[in-house]
Design brief:
- The protein has 123 residues and is α+β, with helices and mostly antiparallel strands.
- 40% of the residues lie in helices and 15% in strands.
- It has a single domain (2-116), classed as Rossmann fold (3-Layer(aba) Sandwich), CATH 3.40.50.10320.
- Helix 2 links the parallel strand 1 and strand 2.
- Helix 3 (66-79) runs antiparallel to helix 4 (91-104).
Length: 123
Amino acid sequence: DYFRQLSTSCSPDLIFTHRREDIHQDHKFVAELTWQHFRDHLIFEYEIPKYEGDLGQPSVFVPLAHDTAERKLEAIITHFASQHDKPWFSAETLRALLQVRGVECQSPTGLAEAFYCRKIAFG
């Protein structure tokens, strides 16, 4: 019901959600709800490094400046306290993923975020 109400009350330019192939059942469910209710919107699915090794091949890369990357890492570590007990949830692990994605897209800074995008409409 919440997603239905949300989809009728706003029309965002860009939506970020979990990746549909995420093995975590709650993440997968949120991604499916997002696609069901916002199917005509631009949706970027983000990746989370964790135990399952379910990272894939992203289709969108956003190079990051070093200071921007550090601010994002600080915000993630600060605001997701529920994940602090997970061994994979560290600034070092998240920074390493930014570095790998930076290499893949030849980011000038060596850092990039990566997303999965299934549908883009131009015009």
